[in-house]
Amino acid sequence: MARARADPRWKNSDRRPTLHPSHTDFYQPEGLRRLAERLHPGGVFTLWSNNPPDDEFTTALTRAFATATAEITRFDNPYQERKATATVYVATTAPTR
Asked: Is the pTM of the predicted complex or chain greater than 0.70?
């Protein structure tokens, strides 16, 4: 039975990449490859992290997806009453031709 493909996915992770050891596989190259295979062609995966960009994780994304970037975003944090930064990873699968 073929696995169904999914629409774009967003993951919010306050601590890149894992909050619990049982989540480690998701952030490894094989886990990211499995995620990419589950997305529609041209599908998008994004991950929000409160940490600065992680070159090792970005490299793992580029190996699993057609494109991948780590973008720093700045915003007003009303809970802390200050400016804050976060990293948003954006990875896309190859489009259908």
From this structure: yes
